[in-house]
Amino acid sequence: MTADPAPSSPAPSSAGPAWQEQNDSEHSCRIYQRGLHHQGSFVRVYVPYSAEQPGEPLRLILYLHGFALCLPSFYQAHLLELVSQGWIVVFPDFQCSGYDEEPLDGGAAAAGRPAPNWWPTTRRLLRQQGGQPLRRQDMPEAMAGAMDGAEGAEGVEELALASTLPELQVGDLRRVLLPWLLIRLLLGVIGWFRRSYARNLSQLISTVLLSLAFAPKHWLRHAQTQTEAAWNDLASMPRYSHWSQGPDAFHGFGHSLGGLLSLSLPSLQSDNAPPSRFQPTVILAADPATSTEMGIPGFAIALLKLFHAPFTAEPLAIQQTGPQISQPTVILHGLDDTLVPPQLWAVQGGGGAFPSIAAPAKALYFASSNRQLNPSLVAFHNQAVTSTQYYDDALFESFGGVKDGPNPYNTAWIWPAVQALFADGISPDQLLTHLPADRPFAVSSDPPPPKRRLGLALVAASLLVAVLLLVWRRAGG
């Protein structure tokens, strides 16, 4: 990556916080970044040089990340691939996470940095009234310190989060922290057997714990408003003054949780409101969740529901938002996805997931694994990302696959599908004919067969036989 003489100097702006700017001549683009993950205000924008020329098409992709995968480095190779093709790409952290900001020079945030310590916050909030507004000093020290440093607001007590998120009260966060105490206890037990996995899972959930005090519909709205605000603010710069009319094309892409949110963007459009410039005209989702509760351990969901945490009190599901989708829509899924099993999307026995999408032009495709490759390719949930190196491998071996760079699942499956659907205008039902013919794994447009329940049936039958034998012996006695 080749940098300007002053690669991290703030770019001039007429509204909002100043942008950091990095020139990347290797990928023919500029990269802009502003805001804080801690505040829910972080957004990074990749802008090709061509977007500086009036008259050139302004093509925008809203790129939405998976649950807790809030750093650009998880998807950086794909983000740079898209901008080198001439796309303007907006990557917002819609979850309000505890990550530190990554430098624009291609470096990564400090891997393995301890997640925010929520224990002191829990003790403080238990002594306060639930209706009181959250204060900055109630937050974990690292998060509060970052907010103070960013705003220069020493002595200000109110918790400053992105303005498009609802104001939090003590009770909102307390309904998250109390089940979190129990989740940590359970993870402690799991740690006796799988120490590294339990430690990493604890860090992963803790990093986005504050976001669980919001309903997912707030994440969705926040992602859209962050995108529109970033666009309008960049349009105030002289080199982008011709952006004032909005993008010529706007498409939605998302992975996992972000895939569900991308599919749910049309639900934000009010029936009596004029069409938004920031509503996607085409949507592609990679291994999307069918609901916001997918991909999170069931015991954690159960405990959050028990305490009526906002995240689980108002979940988002494709059965709710699918009927609002009229845009051409494609779902790409892996057959070995264990976090969001493909059967949940399958037409038969899928609980209405795919049929609930009302788009006249839609398609559902499944990629298979190829364990003969070296390294082997397993069509797991997180294969759509390009790097999982922020966390150690113990976590992602169970949560969708370890990645240290793109593999064929990216380069022969997700990436060319985005190009064909967004850039070439290929219809969803014709997509397979425009993907690489020499891809090293099979792709099918047919849903997978329902899961076999033979093992479960054998267990049930064995239990039934044991019960019958016990009854027979007692009757005989």
What is the overall shape?
A: globular
SS summary, helix count: 13
Gyration radius (Cα, Å) is: 23 Å
Major β-sheet, in short? 11 strands, mixed
CATH architecture grouping: 3-Layer(aba) Sandwich
Provide the succession of SSEs.
EEEEEHEHHHHHEHEHHHEEHHEH
What is the CATH superfamily label? Alpha/Beta hydrolase fold, catalytic domain
CATH fold node name:
Rossmann fold
Strand arrangement, major sheet = 1-2-3-4-6-5-7-8-9-10-11
Query: How helix-rich are the residues, as a percent range?
Result: 25-40%
By DSSP, the count of extended strands is 11
CATH first level? Alpha Beta
Task: Enumerate the spans where pLDDT stays under 50 for 5 or more consecutive residues.
Answer: 1-14, 150-155
Average pLDDT works out at 85
Strand-residue fraction? 5-15%
Structural class: alpha/beta
- First and last CA, distance: 83 Å
Count the domains: 1
In short:
The protein has 477 residues and is an alpha/beta fold. It is built from 13 helices and 11 strands.
Task: Describe it.
The chain has 477 residues and is α/β, with parallel strands linked by helices. The protein has one domain (10-109, 215-456): Rossmann fold. The protein has helices at residues 76-84, 119-126, 141-151, 170-190, 195-207, 216-234, 257-264, 298-306, 310-313, 318-321, 393-396, 408-423, 454-476; strands at 10-11, 19-24, 29-34, 43-48, 59-64, 88-92, 249-255, 282-286, 329-334, 362-367, 443-444. Helix 4 runs antiparallel to helix 8 (298-306). The chain is globular.
